[in-house]
Design goal:
This protein has 403 residues and is mainly β. The protein is built from 1 helix and 24 strands. Helix content is 1%, strand content 59%.
Length: 403
Amino acid sequence: MYGQEKPKEWDINFYGYARADYIFDSRKSAYVREYQLNLYPLDVAKDANGEDKNATGSSNFLSVVSRLGVKFKGPDVFKAKISGNLEGDFFGNTEVNAAASGTGSIGLFRLRHATIKLDWAKTSLTLGQTWYPTFVPEVFPGVANFNTGIMFNPFGWAGQIRLRQKISEQLSFDLVAYKDREFTASSVSGTAPNAPTFNSSVPTLHGQFQFKNKKIIAGLGAEYQSLKPVIESGGLASDEKLNSTTVFGYFKYANEAIVTKLYGISGGNLTHLVMLGGYGSYANSNGIDSYKPTKTTAFWVDIASNKSKIAPGLFAGYSKNNGLSNSGYKALYMRGLNGTTRAIDNVWRVSARVDFKENKFKLTPELEYTGATWGAMDSSAKVVSAKENVGNFRALVSATYSF
């Protein structure tokens, strides 16, 4: 009709933020990207005088988690509304190599999300790289630290196919097949990074029910992963698999005043989710090693104000290394080891923050304490003796300006 605007065939929106983090730590910790992301405090390491070499503080000022993204949509495809998303930050993909000069890839642009979504009335299909399905975007800790609850909440992105089916207005089911990419299972010594995933012809399979209304989000899910750590063992062709299962659940309640979130997960070989865990190899009479996952259990709770200007929040999380189901391992490939005899038994964290918000600017001071229990392992990778409790106090101020 004359004078009436035609609907836009294409719509493109840019978004992102500049962020500055000021970080102070009381103890040396396992970390990612120059202490931007702290995992757990390191085990006691005594020198010739009996002094703990890891009982030393550190600090850093960083802006590498600043982010850029674009969302776009165009004409319908196969009678479905279609949209896409590209997003990255400057966190990089590799660490500083202490044995060589340079800073790895920190400060360089890295891919976070690259998705295509086709959306029908009751069914949607997402293709590309996005969050691991165990990471729930609506239910993750609201901490200021960039770790977003890492060690207690899954984290990372994976190439995937995700089919979502609406069962009712409030209930949906997701079926996902994915492959690890940036965050992966540990590789056997002498093999390529991410070799267990590459070698496997079967993607990880995931199913998840979610209930959602105006105030509540709740879900239950499970997944099965079958990896192939090596293609040869002791010079012999190997078809040995590393099989593991994971179950998890979550809950969120939000009203005008408060937001409460809870999450729990238990499973084998959770290394790829940036959590405790991994697997062990076992020698067999046929000369070909077999593999079993270590089990990890973790949970967290986050309670925060939902006010628009000043919003305090509290976080608490706990993760437990439950070891292997079989004793007599040959070698371990897991996060949280100190040499071949000591490992982390558990990690816990509490933190308190206050968000000060004005338009698109947010300033957040946060105090955080992370404790870990280290000790000597038995033949099933469980910590049983010579335990040491260590802790790291982190003070953080984060400033973010979004667009």
